[in-house]
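Sat 14:20. Reprocessing the chain from the morning session after the first attempt stalled halfway. Input below, unchanged.
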Amino acid sequence: MVFIDTDVLSVFAKIQRFPLLFTICGENLLNISVAVEAELRTGVAKGFGFARDIIELHSQGRIRTYHPTTADQQLMATMSPSLGLGERESIAICKRLNPILVSNERRVKHHCRENGVDCINLEEILRALWELGIATQADMRKIIAEIETKDNLKFRATDTIFG
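Finished this time. Tokens:
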């Protein structure tokens, strides 16, 4: 089971490569929290096409929403307010269900470690796409260029991906 934060969903939507995300996660279904869904619906209301594409996958049943329990909400109350609601909710739900959380935020990864939640980031996903032969190094360089252009995300160095 895999939970995805808004940041990684938006990256794959902006570059129109959702099939890669499903392939690397080994799942036909990805999971999000209620707050992440709300963030995406806000994006749709603001006219963001990438958010509309993600909500379309949700409508097709390819993305499922999980609601936090009372215990999840209690755990969320102990987390740093520097985390967004979607991030706190995702970490709490993942603590209970024990899936992998995919987020590209360092502070999320830090809080996941503190709470015993497995977390991977975008660079780790890209590295796995290359290492597992899902995409060639040339394909990965194109994907990285697309991400940098369409999401305005800059990779410090690609050696973490290809090293």
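The beta strands are 2-4, 30-33, 63-66, 100-102, 118-120.
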